[in-house]
Write a structure and sequence with these properties.
The chain is mostly beta strands. It is 12% helix and 34% strand.
């Protein structure tokens, strides 16, 4: 499976069989370059402009915006209800955490999660090989909260997202604070990483991808 980061919470997950999934596409106001990509599936964690710009995705993708069991292109996707804040959605509404089963790996994209997971949510998510998690705070988990969720889910690979970069003017923190909390990470020059059951490893890793 290939994982490519376009910035913010937008990734392309591509299976060995060629199924392409785009997560949380953003519009032009976020600051990153809008990706020109075709996909079979688009998942949207919540209806905010920086996560739901489905129009940017080319082709005729199936759009998934809700909790529940989904299946497309040989990929199983499960959506688990959560919230965008720590007060059960009173501030910023609902959020969906997605689990993707791709090429024998379980990838979890938590969207704009704004709270620690309940025991029931963590159990429903289950085993996580790759965790895509916001770390910038203000609108989502901050460095401390994200580190706590990493501890709850114990992924083999953690890829931070939704943090401050030179492309973004949002009042969110850079990734450094999160890396301090988790004891550092690998900064990649590339936007893309290939992860397989053979190379995912047993020792937990934090990998920071680059963006275009």
């Amino acid at each position: 499976m290939k994982i490519r980061w376009f910035g913010h919470a937008c990734f392309l997950l591509e299976s060995q069989g060629g199924t392409k999934i785009v997560t949380d596409p953003f519009d032009g106001s976020v600051g990153y370059k809008i990706p020109k990509i075709e996909a079979d599936i688009v998942t949207v964690s919540h209806d905010h402009y920086d996560h739901n710009y489905v129009e940017a995705v080319q082709g005729d993708p199936e759009v998934i915006k809700s909790p529940g069991e989904h299946s497309a292109g040989g990929v199983k996707i499960k959506g688990i209800p959560a919230f965008h804040d720590e007060v059960k959605g009173a501030k910023r509404g609902a959020n969906v955490v997605y689990i993707y089963e791709i090429d024998g790996l379980r990838v979890c994209h938590v969207g704009d999660l704004g709270h620690l997971l309940s025991k029931a949510q963590a159990e429903e998510i289950g085993k996580v090989d790759v965790l895509l998690i916001p770390v910038g705070g203000t609108f989502t988990l901050d460095a401390e909260g994200a580190a706590a969720v990493v501890e709850q889910l114990a992924p083999k690979v953690t890829i931070p997202m939704h943090f401050k970069t030179p492309a973004v003017s949002m009042p969110i923190d850079p990734v450094d604070k999160f890396l301090e909390k988790v004891g550092g990470g690998e900064q990649m020059d590339s936007t893309t990483i290939e992860i397989t059951p053979e190379n995912v490893g047993e020792k937990p890793r934090v990998i920071v991808l680059n963006y275009e």
